Structures are given as structure tokens and as C-alpha cells.
Amino acid sequence: MKVKQVITIVLSAMLGIEVMAADSKPALVYSRPSAKWMGALPLGNGRLGAMVYGGTDVETIALNEVTMWSGQPDPEANNLCGPDRLREMREAFLSGDYKRGNDLGWQYLCGHGKSFGTNLPFGDLLIGTVGGDVSGYRRELALDEAVARVGFVCGGTRFSREYFASNPAQALVVRYTADKAHALSATVSMRMLRHSEVTARANQIDITGDARFDKNGEGGVRFRGIVRVMADGGSVRAVGDRLVVDRADAMTIIVDIRTDFQNLNYRSQCLNTVETAASRPYDELKREHVADFKAIFDRMDIDLGRPTTDANTTDEMFAEAHKGLSNPAFDALFFKYGRYMQISSSRENSPLPSNLQGIWNDNLACNMPWTCDYHLDINIQQNYWSANIANMAETNAPLFTYIGLLAKYGSVTARKMYGCGGWVAHTINNVWGDTAPGSACSWAMNVTAGAWMATHLWTHYEYTLDKDYLREVGYPLLKETAQFFVDYMVEDPKTGYLLSGPSISPENGFRGADGRGYSLSMMPTIDRAVIYDIYNACIQSAKILGIDDDFSRRLQRDIKKLPPLRLLDNGELAEWYLDVVRDDPSHRHASHLLALYPFGQISPFKTPGLAEGCRLFLENQTSHANWEDTEWTRGNNINFYARLLDGEKAYESLKGLYTGFMRENLMTVSPAGIAGAESDIFSFDATEAAVAGVCEMLLQSYDGMLNFLPALPKAWKNGSIKGVCARGGIEADFAWKNRKVVSATLRSRVDQTVSVRVNGKEKTVELKAGVPFTLL
After folding, report:
1. What is the pTM of this model?
2. Residue 194: CATH number of its domain
3. Angle at Cα 55 formed by Cα 51 and Cα 61, nearest 5°?
4. Fewer CB within 10 A of the end CB, N or C, for the chain?
């Protein structure tokens, strides 16, 4: 450590302020290779995904591409329901005949999804080298550079490897070096998981095929993959379907995969990408990649306190966290890892947003009944909760493109199924335009699923204040979302309230007055929360943009006719418009709490009774003997408890994510037994939900005020954060000691007056665009 850094740490200790050494680099570090996919190191450029095992004699790199989809468009998918049958169902529900309403719903609202498809893995790149006894092994993932490294000594030679997935170059790049001349010999081959033809010529492996599930399957994208190998000081030759490298000083491997999903020129594009990258020096490719990644990653930093254990490697830290031991240093590492994963899986030029597995497909989820697709009843929403608050707003771009795709296809579903304008998408969605419900009303008939995801369009504006985006992208999609519900909702003749339905509270049912269990009803609380948020977003957008006065007035009238949020006799927040409770109180979903988070329609300050109803529900759900604890429920609960100002419960949920659902590479899993899964399956959602939750524990901005340290746990009594974002186009840097903020700086995109709650006191401050404001 440098003398200057030692002096800095000593002075900081004398002043009582805890800091990290200036040369501290966030990295996952391991002392051995991984023997399995869930231990490998993830790389990604927003389109290509790779899992690096770090083997010494045989390296395995599992390859993915986000558009690698089976299935095809289904022209019959929307042949469901229709306005007349919808009217018949509603008459039954509004008259109180829930048996008839549900019977009709299950008859007319269940889809078939016969060619729905799934995202699929591509195959494994295998690099074989001469084996032998190994010493000094180190495997790491530098989070700030997005570069994986492997180093070891074998036979008296030190071998070093670097791996990265470059967004500027749109390719995976691998570099092998040795500290002795002519020490590198290797075989490079592909182990394919798809129907394909693999050929090797000169220094290149070419793979072509399609993404069918089996030889007789229909549909699926066609693809091309290329692996180019270049040797320094040695030779490369093709032997059968593999490449052989002899006595090289170093070698570089360039990989690209392309499909014909919305891309007719995929074959030539793949070749051009590889040739362009191969024509450039390795160091240049790496510098460009690192600069591109750091431009987003370095906007934030976080220090939650000094390490509380002596663990040095990530697998040691993970082992302790898995046992429930608290370590602020590990919490900060996981936060940085989450931001790393978001940037790696979703970029401005990504053709699709991250799916249930981000862009890293383990070949397990795609074989489950729920597949590796886009579930809109919690999972994809969680994937993007971190984007704005954790200063990565541009990673939203592919999500918004996908919402546009859903709006295009969902307008047909809205018209055919319901006789409505606008657009609608239900619980499960693919890339082929299948926005109709799935095969069972109990989980598929979430009529506000697409609208829930569309609320993110408004959240993005709240954080960025980008009027051009709002005018060109956000508001047009929000307006079409609202138009569906303007046409879809019906007035309850008994109360005058506007109701959606038939719909569900995912994925729950209730016991009717006749003692029977039902899933379908009118206006479950999730629908009320989503529709309110969409209408409010459109009203605010129209005012900001100075347009659509008539439409805005209609929404202002209708929003007042939505039923209020309310409590049941047992004190819990009501999950349905009816006075009923759920059939299974241990079920994992808590969709009616959307009004608490992310929407902020409920807050401890403005609606304390409703907030207490949320707390009571969570206590009853999570204390149940059969609670379905999952990775994404833990992500949910971090945010729920942060909004309830309960830092200890929020931290307990974060630690529960570690103990129950995290694996040694810090990926999280959906556990075996949930939704028919036969084994633990990697799921991406909880990672980003946790990042958002940590931000919410440290700074909240949803309630008309910047609230500093609203849910700080005892474990984080000293710390600092840089670059956390707040609504109103604000960034904040602040530090705290003994649970009190000791310094804070705000930066605003616009001139504005802001209310602030800090150290238990409220104040109003004037911010000037681009001028840092020292709050403390």
C-alpha cells in the first residue's frame, strides 16, 4: 500500500471516519476453478452472455445470446373470449355469482400457447490445454472493468488468461498468455446444445443451425456463430471440427453469435463483427471495452463499513454469509455485483431486455413448465428496479423497446379478446407477439401485467426529467396503456366504482361465501394500484408536455372513480375488492402491496393505517409455517420493509437472500419445488431488486421528500454512498457516522425547490441545475 494511502487511513481513523483504501477494487476472487455452471463467472455485453468456469486443463465457457429463441408466432393465440362473452362473465360477477363467472372464465379465457417457445442456450466453448500440477491459482471477476481473469503456475510456467464481452466490439474476447516463449498449445472446439452444423477451416470455427427443441420441431430462430483463433508466435490449424494451436506465445479468441430475430443480415453481420474485432490489437479492444463499461459503473460507489470477518476470497465470504453472518463489506460487494450484472445484461443497443435469467441461460429454466421467457407478474419488473435509482438509466432502453413490441401485438389482443382500444399483455410473454393469457386462469389472467411493466416508463421520467424521451417514447406508450383501461373498465352498479376484470391477484385464489375456492374476480387490488399509477402518469405527462387536455380530463374524472385502498377486518391490506382472504396464506406473491412499493401510493407518513396493513400482511405471510420463500420474495421484502422504515427487517430479508438462495458466484436461484421446478434454477430478478432495496434503505424520494437513511440497519452504522439517484433528476453523495449523516452533496438537472428529511429534521433547499449543493 502506498504511503499516502496509509496516511489517509490513519487520519480517517483518528477523525472517526471509516473509508476504503483508494486502491480497493471491487472483484469476485476465488482460489479454485468452478466445476459447475452456477459457480462460473458471468460476462455480458447486453446481448452475448458467457459463463467462465476457469478450468486449467480444460476451460469451459458457456455461451448465450439473448435472441436465441425457439417457437414462432401463433395466429390463433388471440382466439379467446370476445366482447359478448366478456359481458356475460361480468354480469355473473357483478350479480355475485362467482361460480358462474369463474366457470365461464376458465372456459373462455385460457390460452394454449402451442408455439410459445423459450430462450435457449447456444453451447459451450471448450479450450483444452496440457494438464499438470497447478499452484498459485487465482480466478477473479473485476467488477469495475468487467474483465474475468485466471492465473496459475503449471510446469514452471505462469499462465494468464483474460475474458471480456465487449459492447463496443459486440464480441466475446479471450486472451491466453504465458511468461515463457512458445508455451501455449491448445485445442479449441464447440459443444453444441442446438441443432447445428460445425465446421472448422484455417483458424475459424463456423456454426450454423436453428433453435428448434427437437428435429421435428417448428419455428425457432436461425443462427450463426463464429469462433476465430489467432496465435502470436505459433500456428493454428483446423483438425476435423476443431482448431489446434501449437507452441504459441499468446493466443486471442474472438466469438460472436447472431440470429435472424428481426435481423435478415445475421450471417454477414456475424462475420463482419468477428473480422473487425480480429483486425484490432487486443490491448485496444480491452481499453475500449473497459472505458465503455466504467462510464456507467463508476458513477456509483458504496461503502457500508469495514469487514467484520477475516475472509479474503469471495467463496470464503459467501460461505460466511450463507451461514447468516453479517459483513458490511460483503453487502457492498453484492451491491456492486448487482450493478455489474445490470450493465452486463441490458445496454442501449440490446435487441431484447433481460429475461428470467438475464442473458445467462443454464439450460434448466428453458426446460421447466414456465420456461425462460418474460414473466410480467413480478420478475421482469424486478430486473429493472435498479436501473434508475442506481444510476444506470440507459440500461432501460431495451425494456422500453420491448414494451413497444408488446404494445404492437397487444393491441390485437385487446381488440379481439375484449373489444378495446389500446393494448394489453398478460402474465407470460414471448418474442413472437403472444400477449394473450396462458393455459390457466389462476396464474395467467393478470390483465394488468403489461401495464405494471409500463409504469416503469413514468418512473424513468421521474428520475431523468428527459422531456424528449417522455414526448417520443414514454407518453405515447403510457397513453395507449391507459386507453385500454378507459375502454375496458366497467361501472359497478352497486357502488359506482370503475372496475377491471375478470382478473386475478397473481397467483392467488380466495374462498367465496359458498365455501368454494376462486381465482377470478373484479378489480383485485393489484389492478387498482396499477391503473391508478398509469392514469396519474398520463395526467402528469400531458400537463408537462402541454398536450391531450381532453384525454387528461377523462382520466382525471375516472381516477376519482377507482375504489379506494382499504383494510380488512383482520387489519391487513385488502387483496381483493371483495371482503375475502386468500386461500393459501403462505403463498409467495404479495401483489396487492405494489401500492407500497414500487408505486408509493401508501406511505408511513401520509397513509399510516394502510402502511400498517401492509406490515401486518407481511408478518402473517412470512411467519406462516409453509411460507413459500423464494429469491424474488426476498427482493420484494427488502423494498417493502425499506418503505415501512424498518431497516432491521429489510436487512434480515437481504441476509435471507444470502442464506437461502445465493450460490458461490453470487447468483441467486429460484428453489426446487416452486412452480414445478425439479431443481434450483438461476433467476436474475432478486439481484436487481436487492440493489434497488439497498438504495431505498439509504435514500427515498417517492413521497415528495428526500429522506436520508430512512431504513438504516445497525450493521451499517458507518458508511458512504456516491451517485445514488432520486426522483426529480437528483444525484446524491453522502456519508454517515453512528447512524447520522455527516456530509451530503446534491446535484440537480434542473432548478428546483426540494424538501429534505435528514437526521430527523426537515428543511427546504434551493437547487440550481448543474451546481453541487452542500447539504451538510
Report:
1. 0.95
2. 2.70.98.50
3. 25
4. N
